[in-house]
């Protein structure tokens, strides 16, 4: 934080009759372009013949606006209050209520749903699922977790059991009919949908009185198709949507159901239904039906006939006999034909949707990995590389061997596990059996998931050549869950809607409503086509992961070969590839899983494509449009729109905001970011590959073998030298481990770039809890380091033009580091180095290597090559450039603070104001620090002043200045400065800590003086957050009116007030995103696994908020939410104006030719944002959101109480003052009660507590009257012990005089 002073710190339509149901189109309403077939049928209601091509449950499309309403736009949009998403504060873990259960699902309920899901899958254990379901229905009637898809899953399971369990067939059918009738009666607030009627129609079709296995109840009138048709029509459900539902997997079944529905419709006089179903046959033609099959190229496959003979006989027979030759389709061609079969299928189903056809080409990573590893292993054998000397050097060979062993081991262990669990009594619905979960996938996939996930985790979490056990187990279990859900998505073959075409403006009411309508309808359509699945808890993931990891550790081995020093003979042994151990981290014993050293070394050198999951890779098609909080991004991998970590509350806010349509522009922004096409810059890649293969240190690419000298061990007896050696050795080991980790990281980048050289890439995006957008692939993306950015360029190109040609030069100067000069000077800089630029482009490694001196060398090289091509083209302005050009904010956090506070002085330092030359806040702070050091040097106050004098470069203070606004602490600032001083190598190692601590204090003090407006706003935000985190809902105060103000809860005693402080800081961004800070006290749950006992956090078990973290993190999080809003406003407007757009937080990218347009958009959106009274809206939201919250006065003792009193608005001071005396009384009484109950507390501690209590009164508070202690059984009046939160909120700091509209003419605001 900024210091206060210088010294302080679904699927396809079903056909009618005999046509193939796969040939029917999807609703055109879901696509960006209308279907070309004018006679394509549409969904209909029972009341009118459909006239438009969208399902009956979709509202008619609005007429296109002829022009954007002048009264609407970004200014009008931002001037309105964003709609709040209101969720009750979660109750403590030992309290419950129906309202709390409605919003927050506990871990036991989540596990119960997971058990149901696993037991219903392939009817693994339907009786157990039924028992757990009955328990949930009795205990949580009307709970939203008991929704229609869950009931439909049981109806499908009962139908499947009736088909295969003939003895109990009637029982299963009775259960099915009873459950359906309860849905019709809405007994449990669950209503049937199209899938429900599809299942019941299938049940009637298979068990009606005319079948070989009739069921008596289905002969009743209300079970006949006519009655079901009347019911679904009454619910406004289209019959076609019923026939097209995902549960109907057979074209024959679909045709039979359609025929019965048509007959029933004829008897009931429903001509609309007949017309709707009759149109299907007209469009069911297959365009390739008459085209003959292509005979493929065949490869000759000699079959050895003479293996049983000795070599001499075999040679003679081979000379005299013609070998038998078999033909086979080559491996790659065979795979291609299989993929093209899917394309042909997709063409019949969706003739106008290339996107969905491309989707069908994607296969499971685990299937592909298995085939690839097997193929490469076979190739090694064919080439003679299967000998012992080479096998140990092949990572792929090892992984394939592990896979074969692990697959067999998993099969055996699952059978053993089933027998063990069957032997245990089933007397508890809450008992979670493991066998249903490890049976969801094949042993083949389980084996590959385990291997690939552990290989990918290597070196994470600060563990050298390994990973934390808890993280490894949860990650493997989560991967099993995600692959199972991916299979469910692929199984249903759901058609994926694309985002709608861009509107004239995203900020009109009509545009936002259209987006909401489209997403709601598309989401309903997709979710109705999906199979129901349940989320797994962390403990369940850990148990599943433990089962698989334990199996792997027992079977995975590597052969290591060495030479016996005594005999000189070569000795080989099989060693475990993974092993479990412990290490101590900050005094805590930490379980870790380590890789064998040779495996870790090969991972840094070998081809690692097989360790990459699709969720770690870019996409080949545009990402799936975000339809809801958990539906978008990757096609088959279920993704969340927000990166959540151990926080249930934020997930609940997110879900409800999505359901209420408050996040339409968030979803639209992410769709825009994900739709930007990219490609690999081949010229830069060739240079990177050449450097990489040399395995030597180059720029920030580390060498294959760490090349720094190891510290020399000192002689015995010199303790000071020994201590220095141990410190240096520790740093050496850390640097060597970092070298290895960095090498692995770059290996991923290079491999991914190589694999996608010929493709167009897309990066699906999601957000963090503050709204900042990130590409979802973690390895190679434009948000990565300089190397990642240098490897990427836009896939689309645009002619430079005169403006673009100039901006390309400015961009090159910026990348080189010459970015503090005027634009004209930057252009001149490039002109002066044209020869160096030419040499860098033509001879990047053999020439003068000018580009390597740049601040961002790989991006500089890419720009040199692009500028060189433009100059060589003969007409630079006509040159088609695909180079991204950046516009970066100047310490963007401080820019937002200066605009919020109207801080003229701060605005000048961060280029908000008009200036001839760009200001450099980092240089200015460095100068201020240097002056302070000179003063200390003159006074002789510090030995570090002499060490640091003249060495305070801009680079030393830049990171600290940049992150101060984002909440960096003194400790963090010291670490940042220490790293910079270490890189400069200007301070002795033993003096580094003290020098960096001294300098951090000077830097943070200088920032506090320079940005006084930001300091005041930070203080206001911090105080608001601190008060909110201490608040308690009024209803909780009333229900627990005998609370005690002790700090701990005594067993059987009154409720401790600290246990009720569950309120987190929540606010709404201008884009409608609810932000709930996730900082709560750590509450961990012990899970016994076969590997070790692990302690994991349980997001579903609420804990009290961490008030300190809530207060300190709020200012930076709030500023982050503002820069995220600015970015999204810019992205939306760029889409409207047709600009290619990408961003890295406060760095906005587009083509050089469109930089001028981008600059205008950036400034207009920033001005509109900061003219919308952001802080006033935040204050109003706090008072609305927390209107009925109360703060225990005992929580406001000491300086906090004085601050609350001093900062409260004048109208509320009287009430705050009147409450002070009661606060003091309550606090002292609580201390006295603690003393009486705790005899072990020392007298000295008593005196400290009493002294602190008596000295904490606000200065203007009158002296309290003589107190008499209240009897213990007498309850204090609630008003005496609590204050209304809204009464003690601090008043907003006064805004300065800076006019934010000046930014319009500030050419260096973003540059």
UniProtKB/TrEMBL annotation:
Which Gene3D superfamilies has this protein been placed in?
A: 1.10.287.260, 1.10.287.280, 5' to 3' exonuclease, C-terminal subdomain, DNA-directed RNA polymerase, N-terminal domain, Tetratricopeptide repeat domain
Record bears the keyword Transit peptide? yes
Q: Where is this region: Disordered?
A: 1232-1280
E.C. code: 2.7.7.6
UniProt xrefs under PROSITE patterns: RNA_POL_PHAGE_1, RNA_POL_PHAGE_2
Q: List GO BP terms, alphabetically.
A: mitochondrial transcription
What GO MF annotations does this protein's record show?
Answer: DNA-directed RNA polymerase activity; mitochondrial promoter sequence-specific DNA binding
Stored InterPro entries: DNA-dir_RNA_pol_helix_hairp_sf, DNA-dir_Rpol_C_phage-type, DNA-dir_Rpol_phage-type, DNA/RNA_pol_sf, RNA_POL_N_sf, RPOL_N, TPR-like_helical_dom_sf
What spans are recorded as compositionally biased (Basic residues)?
1264-1273
Which family is this sequence assigned to? Belongs to the phage and mitochondrial RNA polymerase family.
What this protein is called in its record is: DNA-directed RNA polymerase
Organism, per UniProt? Schizopora paradoxa
